[in-house]
Specification:
It comes from Gemmobacter fulvus. This is Aspartate aminotransferase family protein. Belongs to the class-III pyridoxal-phosphate-dependent aminotransferase family. The protein is α/β, with parallel strands linked by helices and 443 residues long. It folds into two domains: 15-46 and 322-441, Aspartate Aminotransferase, domain 1 (Alpha-Beta Complex), CATH 3.90.1150.10; 50-320, 3-Layer(aba) Sandwich (Aspartate Aminotransferase, domain 2), CATH 3.40.640. The chain has helices at 36-39, 48-60, 72-84, 98-115, 136-141, 145-148, 166-169, 176-193, 220-230, 283-291, 305-320, 323-344, 378-388, 417-437; strands spanning 15-19, 22-25, 30-32, 89-95, 123-128, 160-162, 198-203, 234-239, 262-265, 277-282, 348-354, 357-362, 394-398, 404-409. Strand 13 (394-398) and strand 14 (404-409) form a beta hairpin. The longest helix has 22 residues, at 323-344. The protein binds 4'-deoxy-4'-aminopyridoxal-5'-phosphate. 4'-deoxy-4'-aminopyridoxal-5'-phosphate is lined by residues 38, 97-99, 102, 131-134, 204, 208-209, 238, 240-241, 266.
Length: 443
C-alpha cells in the first residue's frame, strides 16, 4: 500500500529519471513531457547548468531567513527579473509557489490602498472561468466551480466577469469591437460594485488550466488597462503559468505591450528544479507600503538562496540559448500542426494559445460548437489514450456548466521541430483511437 495521497485517482507509474523533454518510469518506459508537467518544466529536465548552479549554492548555504539575511542569489535574481520586466515593475518579492504569489499580490494591493487613504477599496474582480490558486484567498478569485464549491461558506465571494471567450460566442477575434465588448463588462462590474470599493482586477493574460490557453481578442488588453486607470483600480496579472518565457516573451502582458501594476509568476520560474515564485510590483506601490511600516506578509521559505540560485540559472539558460525565441518559433510550428488537425477531426472546435502555451478544444460538432456530453469525460479519455502512447498532455473541462473540454499541449521551451513531429505522431494515434471509440457522438 502506498502512503502517498494525491488528487489523481488514475494509477501512475513511478518516475525514475528525466532528461530534456523525456521522462522514464521505473520499468524503463519513456514518455514525452508534452505538458512540461503542469506547464512547469520550461527548460526541460536535468539541465546540467541549472544542476551545477544548485550544487555550487548547496556547498555555500541552502537557507538564510529573510529577516536575518539578504542573499546574493536573491539580490541577483531580483535584479534579473526587474530587468526582464516592463518599465516600472521593479520590486520583486519571492515566494515558493503560484498561490503564494497571487496571495502576495492581492495583499500588497490591499495594504497599498490602506496606506494611501483608500481603505474602502477591497474587492478584487476576476474572471469566470479562471484559476488563481488553491489557498482560500486565491480560491476566492478563482472562477471554477468544481474547485470552489466545497469551500464556499469559508470564502469571501469576489465579483466575477466573463472571460473573453470570443470563439464560443461566435465573435471575431480580430475585431477591436470584440475586445471592447468584453472589456465593457469590467467597467459595468466596477460601476455595479461602486468604484470606490474596487481594489483590483486580476486576469491571466494567456489563460491557463481553466480556459485552455485563452488568448484575448483584439483591443481587449488595452481597453482593460484604460478602464482600470479610469477608476483607480490596480491591474494584477496572474502569470503563474504564462510568465517566465513560455509564451515567447518574459510576460504574457508583453505580447500586447500592457504593463500591469503587479504580476504573479511561478511554475516555469523555478522550472521544476525548485519551488519558486515571485510577485513583481510597481516601485511606488512598494515604497508607499514600506514607508508606512512595511509589508505585513511573508512565507518562511521565501527567497531561500538555493531556490534563488536555481531560478537565476534557469533565466540565464533561457537567455543563453534564446529559449523565448525558440518557444515563439517552434510554438508557431506546433500551433499550425495542431490547426491542421481540424481538417482531420470535426470534433476539434478551436486551437489557440501563444508560444508554447497551446491548447485545442474538443466539441461534439465544430459547426455549432456543441459541447461533448460531460458523462463522456472526453478530456480524461484522450489524456489516457495519449499516455498509453507515451505522450503526456494536460486537460481540463471548461465553459459555464463545464460541458467543454480542452487539452493543453505545452512541451518545454527547448523542444525542437523534430520533437514536434514525434509529439504529433503520438497525438494523432491517440486522436484516431478517440475518434473510433466515440464515432457515434462526434462530428
Ligand atoms: N495561478 C495560475 C494561473 C495557475 O495556473 C496556478 C497553478 N496551476 C496557480 C495560480 C497556483 O499555483 P500553485 O499550484 O503553484 O500554487
Amino acid at each position: 500500500m502506498s502512503h502517498l495521497f494525491y488528487l489523481s485517482t488514475a494509477a501512475r507509474p513511478v518516475l525514475n529519471r528525466a532528461e530534456g523533454i523525456y521522462m522514464w518510469d521505473r520499468d524503463g518506459r519513456r514518455f514525452i513531457d508534452g505538458s512540461s508537467g503542469a506547464m512547469v518544466s520550461n527548460i526541460g529536465h536535468s539541465n546540467p547548468a541549472v544542476l551545477a548552479a544548485m550544487r555550487a549554492q548547496m556547498d555555500k548555504s541552502t537557507f538564510g531567513y529573510r529577516l536575518h539575511f539578504e542573499t546574493e542569489p536573491g539580490e541577483r535574481l531580483a535584479a534579473k527579473v526587474a530587468a526582464l520586466s516592463p518599465a516600472g515593475l521593479e520590486k520583486v518579492f519571492f515566494v515558493s509557489g503560484g498561490s503564494e504569489a497571487v496571495e502576495s499580490a492581492v495583499k500588497l494591493a490591499r495594504q497599498w490602498a490602506v496606506v494611501t487613504g483608500q481603505a474602502q477599496r477591497w474587492k478584487v474582480i476576476s474572471r469566470f472561468p479562471s484559476y488563481h490558486g488553491s489557498t482560500l484567498g486565491a480560491l476566492s478569485l478563482t472562477g471554477y466551480d468544481p474547485l470552489t464549491d466545497p469551500f464556499l461558506p469559508m470564502m469571501v465571494q469576489m465579483p466575477k466577469i466573463p472571460a473573453p471567450r470570443a470563439y464560443l460566442d461566435g465573435l471575431d477575434m480580430e475585431d477591436p469591437a470584440t475586445g471592447a465588448h468584453y472589456a465593457a463588462m469590467l467597467e459595468a462590474q466596477i460601476l455595479a460594485e461602486g468604484p470606490g470599493s474596487v481594489l483590483a482586477f486580476i486576469q491571466e493574460p494567456v489563460g491557463g488550466a481553466s480556459t485552455g490557453a485563452l488568448v484575448p481578442p483584439a483591443g481587449y488588453m488595452q481597453a482593460i488597462r484604460t478602464i482600470c486607470d479610469r477608476y483607480g483600480v490596480l491591474l494584477i496579472h496572474d502569470e503563474v503559468m504564462s510568465g517566465g518565457g513560455r509564451v515567447g516573451t518574459f510576460l504574457g502582458g508583453d505580447l500586447w505591450g500592457i504593463i500591469p501594476d503587479i504580476v504573479a509568476i511561478s511554475k516555469g520560474f523555478g522550472a521544476g528544479y525548485v519551488p519558486l515564485g515571485a510577485m513583481v510590483a510597481r516601485g511606488d506601490i512598494v515604497e508607499a507600503v514600506q514607508a508606512a511600516g512595511g509589508f505585513v506578509h511573508g512565507h518562511t521559505y521565501a527567497g531561500n538562496p538555493l531556490a534563488c540560485a536555481a531560478g537565476l540559472a534557469v533565466l540565464e539558460e533561457i537567455g543563453r540559448n534564446d529559449l523565448m525565441g525558440n518557444a515563439a518559433r517552434v510554438g508557431a510550428v506546433l500551433k499550425s500542426r495542431l490547426k491542421n488537425l481540424m481538417q482531420r477531426y470535426g470534433f476539434i472546435g478551436d486551437v489557440r494559445g501563444e508560444g508554447m502555451l497551446l491548447a485545442f478544444e474538443l466539441v461534439a460538432d465544430r459547426a455549432t460548437m456543441t459541447p461533448l456530453p460531460p458523462a463522456m469525460k472526453a478530456f480524461d479519455t484522450l489524456v489516457e489514450l495519449a499516455y498509453a502512447e507515451g505522450l503526456i498532455v494536460y486537460s481540463r473541462r471548461t465553459r459555464g456548466g463545464y460541458a467543454g473540454d480542452h487539452v493543453l499541449v505545452c512541451p518545454p521551451m527547448i523542444t525542437t521541430e523534430a520533437q514536434v513531429d514525434e509529439i504529433m505522431d503520438k497525438l494523432i494515434r491517440a486522436l484516431d483511437q478517440f475518434a473510433a471509440a466515440h464515432a457515434g457522438a462526434l462530428a
